[in-house]
Amino acid sequence: MKIMTCPLNGPRPVSEFFYWGEVRPMPNPDTCTDAEWADYVFNRNGAPGVKREWWCHTPSNTWFIAERDTEKDVVLKTYFYQGEA
Amino acid sequence: MPWRLLRFALNKKHPEPRMFTTHDKLKSSYDVVIIGAGGHGLAAAYYLATEHGIKNVCVLEKGYIGGGNTGRNTTIIRSNYLTPEGVKFYDESVNLWQDLSRDFDLNLFYANRGHFTLAHTDSALRTMRWRAEVNKHYGVDSEVVGPEAVKEAAPMIDLSCAGHSPILGALYHAPGSVARHDAVAWGYGRGADQRGVEIHQQTEVLGIDVQGGKVRGVNTSRGYISTNKVLCAVAGSTPRILKMVDLRTPIYIHPLQAMVSEPVKPWLDPILVSGSLHVYISQSARGELVMGASLDPYELHATRSTLDFVEGLTSHMLDMFPFMSNVKVMRQWAGMADMTPDFAPIMGKTPVEGFYLDSGWGTWGFKATPVCGKTMAHTLVNDTPHPLITGFSLDRFSNYALTGEKGAASVGH
User: Fold this and answer.
1) Among B82, B266, B298, B302, which has the minimal tally of Cβ within 10 Å of its Cβ?
2) Quick one: B158 exposed, middle or buried, by C-beta within 10 A (0-12, 13-18, 19+)?
3) Distance from CA of A56 to the nearest CA of B (A)
4) ipTM, 2 decimals?
5) What is the value of pTM for the model shown?
């Protein structure tokens, strides 16, 4: 992967982008247990596969979602966050 | 030794087997199955056989011996860590390293060079004072030195680092060493093999049979094996194995790249590390400069190399050693680092009975090879964690009791 497509700026070199990890729903800190919170804070889905991830185009500070195959290093699509369905 | 050589000279046939015995078939059951024939897995097999008399052991390897991170690191051995758990653990490892060549009757090219961690900022110097005090408390040779000591040990260095990151001091660790990384895996592998441990290369683990929360066997590309104890020592492939036993952990995978230059005359004796410039460098016995930097910036389960890495690393390298501008880069490579949030490993028992982890070795696993083998063998045999690894258990995350080792990571990640 050398080029990534920013939903706002189009295809740009990957060095302009910043990776912020997989999209993960946050449990409600007021109601969840300590174990659920620890699971959210520390644990990750570390296995390879197609993942939905937060990325940022740093020169324009544009945050968006990328669907990426973490084994083949291929971006399948990029789009703006639409809220959780 | 000369008599053995003479036998080779006079004999038409090769009088001894090669390094490792090849086995046509897997047995139907083993006392212990170790996944991963890297340094860690083979060391565990070696100590199971030598210290605990457990020889009905099988080491499964998807690729070839030492082909993972054992053969992809930059071979630095040190024990100047930050936490008491880390310092005690790595110090024991350094002690074991010093005797390995003799134990194996195999030259590991273990070379004691001295290790400087450079400080370019006041805050870095503060962390180094902290590390030096913790180290000294546990009897590890470690001290903060001034820039003049760095210049004396490496006269070619530009102490101002091109004027933008002047070196204010360094943490000097006299026992810092390098060793030939492949030979470590070969030495442990041969030692285990000679004592009856079976090493099966080109044998992939496809699944782990867990019944009622207990390990019952392992499915491999060459058939099923029944066993009650499995040790997972697979570095960057750890999450794939964890998926088979349905365990959630904090481990995430980023590639770590490294490169070597063409061989040049010996000019750099110590090992130099700069956290701020994201550089570490040593000169191998062959004269190649072995260099590494920080992790790649995003998750990836592959070992591809990038030009970005070479450009970034060389530009920082030239800040330190401007005269290297004519030296050519000979090759580069990557390994998959299994990172943890606190930069300490994850070792010991897991909620799955009979499934043991030697993982979370990120960018710091090579130096720990001997002590990991020793402590994991102890843990497998006694079914309780060795006292040196209790600070590295998986449940520290659910207990919010982390072992913060980031301050001692070689470069800022």
Assistant:
1) B266
2) middle
3) 12
4) 0.95
5) 0.94
